[in-house]
C-alpha cells in the first residue's frame, strides 16, 4: 500500500540541490521507493545517498521514526502513511 511520507534531508543538501525546504513529501511503499523518488526528483543528491542502485552509501543513515533502517529491512523497510524518513550523514571527528 502506498503511503504519504516525508523525507527530511540535511539543510546543507538544500543548497546543493536548489531545494527550498528540507522536508520533502512523496508517496512510497518502502524506504527504497522514497529514496528512488528523492534521487529522481533531485539527481544531484544521488551520489550523496546511493553507492549504486539499491545500496546506500556507507556514510549515510536513514531513520524511520527512531529506527535505523539498517536494523530493519534496509531499503525494503515498509513505511506506514505519514511516516518521516530522516537522512542523517555520519559525522567524523574525535
Please supply descriptive tags for the structure shown above.
about 90 residues; alpha+beta; Ubiquitin-like (UB roll); five-stranded mixed sheet; 7 strands
| Overall domain count | 1
Tell me how many strands there are: 7
Q: In terms of per-residue confidence, which ranges show pLDDT below 50 for 5 or more consecutive residues?
A: none
CATH superfamily: Beta-grasp domain
Strand line-up of the largest beta sheet: 2-1-7-5-6
CATH topology: Ubiquitin-like (UB roll)
* Major sheet summary line: 5 strands, mixed
Summarize the amount of helix as a percent range: 10-25%
Shape: globular
Rounded to the nearest angstrom, the radius of gyration is 12 Å
SS-based class? alpha+beta
Helix and strand element order: EHEHHEEEEE
Q: DSSP strand (E) fraction?
A: 25-35%
- Overall pLDDT, averaged? 92
- Please report the first level of CATH classification, the CATH class: Alpha Beta
- Give the N-terminus to C-terminus distance in angstroms: 43 Å
Figure out the total of helices: 3
CATH architecture name: Roll
